[in-house]
Design goal:
This protein is mainly alpha-helical and 264 residues long. The protein is 63% helix and 0% strand. The longest helix is centred in the middle third of the chain and has 34 residues. The protein is built from 10 helices and no strands. The N and C termini lie far apart (47 Å). Helix 4 runs antiparallel to helix 5, helix 6 runs antiparallel to helix 10 and helix 7 runs antiparallel to helix 8.
Length: 264
């Protein structure tokens, strides 16, 4: 029996199933797919997601700084050609998130949504406390801290490896894809969005973008780069690497569960 890949090891762990479901199948997402999120709620979430995307840029840059390209032109070692593939992936990630930020601004403007919307402070189930000024809420701040731990300065953690970063990259992207696929599954067969509370922003623009074939291909490439890079790590550090990867995987799932606003 062959050894499972890193992504298989993470996603198939017996302790993950319930956590993964909570991270990708929230009430917020089911209402989003039905066009039943108010503009205020959508604006609050979108404003935080925009801050997340800005931090993602620094994260991707930090991962690029960890890529070590081959020095020999004629060396065909798979471990070195893989570095080029990972670099290409990270370049795609940077281009994608840059395009995403422009997409946020254009779509928000078209549908009258805010990108600096004040919302509930993320304190568990307590939604009565309101932010005084626009800023990352508690969960977004944790995401930003995680991303910034891979950057050069000032919050970098020098022990964070490229493997760690690829785990975080794949997990965040896979969870995002699976979450919005879940939302899409709740969409009505009626494609008329005139009655949607957000004017059709989610069902006409955001959800198609976040479940597109292009995005699915990108997530698949994230997975393959993670699996291939994990497979060439030293056997002496394999156990430590697997434990670190599982810790990061769970951390992202916990953050993602809390990232979706609580809605009635």
């Amino acid at each position: 029996m062959s050894k499972p890949s890193m992504s298989e090891y993470l996603i198939s762990s017996f302790e993950i199933a319930d956590l993964y479901q909570r991270a990708t199948q929230s009430q917020f997402l089911s209402l989003a797919g039905q066009g039943r999120l108010s503009p205020d709620v959508l604006s609050q979430w979108l404003s935080q997601d925009r801050l997340y995307a800005q931090a993602y840029i620094r994260f991707a840059g930090g991962l690029i700084s960890r890529v070590r390209l081959p020095t020999k032109v004629d060396d065909q070692d798979i471990t070195q050609s893989l570095q080029w593939r990972i670099l290409s992936l990270l370049q795609t990630a940077l281009a994608g998130v840059t395009r995403e930020l422009r997409f946020f601004e254009e779509t928000a403007k078209r549908y009258g949504l805010g990108l600096e919307a004040l919302g509930p402070v993320a304190e568990g189930g307590n939604l009565s406390n309101k932010s005084a000024d626009f800023a990352p809420n508690k969960v977004t701040k944790h995401y930003i801290d995680l991303f910034d731990s891979f950057t050069a300065q000032p919050h970098a953690n020098p022990t964070k490896t490229l493997l760690d970063g690829l785990v975080v990259l794949w997990t965040t992207e896979k969870v995002y894809l699976d979450s919005w696929t879940y939302a899409k599954q709740h969409a009505s067969e009626n494609t008329d969005t005139d009655g949607d509370l957000d004017g059709g922003a989610l069902r006409k623009a955001f959800i198609p973008n976040w479940t597109s074939d292009e995005f699915q291909s990108f997530v698949k490439e994230c997975q393959e780069c993670l699996d291939d890079y994990a497979a060439i790590q030293d056997e002496d550090t394999e156990e430590v690497g697997a434990a670190s990867s599982m810790t990061l995987f769970k951390k992202v799932l916990v953050l993602e569960e809390s990232f979706w606003p609580m809605v009635a």
